Amino acid sequence: MRENILLVANSGFTIINFRSEFITDLQDKGFWVYVACPEDLGLMNGINPQDEIKKLGAIFLPIKLIRNGLNPFNELISVISIFKALHAAKPKIVVNYTIKPTIYSSLACKILRIKEVFSNITGIGYVFTSMSFKSKLISALIRIQYRLALGSNKKVFFQN
Questions:
Q1: Buried b or exposed e, range 110-133, using 16+ CB within 10 angstroms
Q2: Is the pTM of this model over 0.85?
């Protein structure tokens, strides 16, 4: 029986540009691949990321997620949206990319008792390098969230 794997990211462009081969490899290994990310409204070089995800043979699950927002209402919508994607995909394995999907999806997987969770942190980001008071406050909050979320990951990959 084929297992489901869910990739969660903050952009379809990221998936197409950096994870296409990974998706193909997973399919070759017998997985049904689902991709949860926001619908990109613009085209990149004339390419619609959602269409490209589907062309790869993956199942696209749109989620509501604003990459750089801090509105608590929008963040709650993001968490609920990720829960819905997890429910729809019923994955055995979840792979997360970027800060918000990593934190929200990892915590959701913890609640749903999904054990095979992997996160890929591709850089520390502006919030950790800026010296402004606001950035220092946000980075402290993110560190706490990372501690809570990543503790339930089977493995965490760091790049850059």
A1: beeebeebbbbbeeebebeeeeee
A2: yes
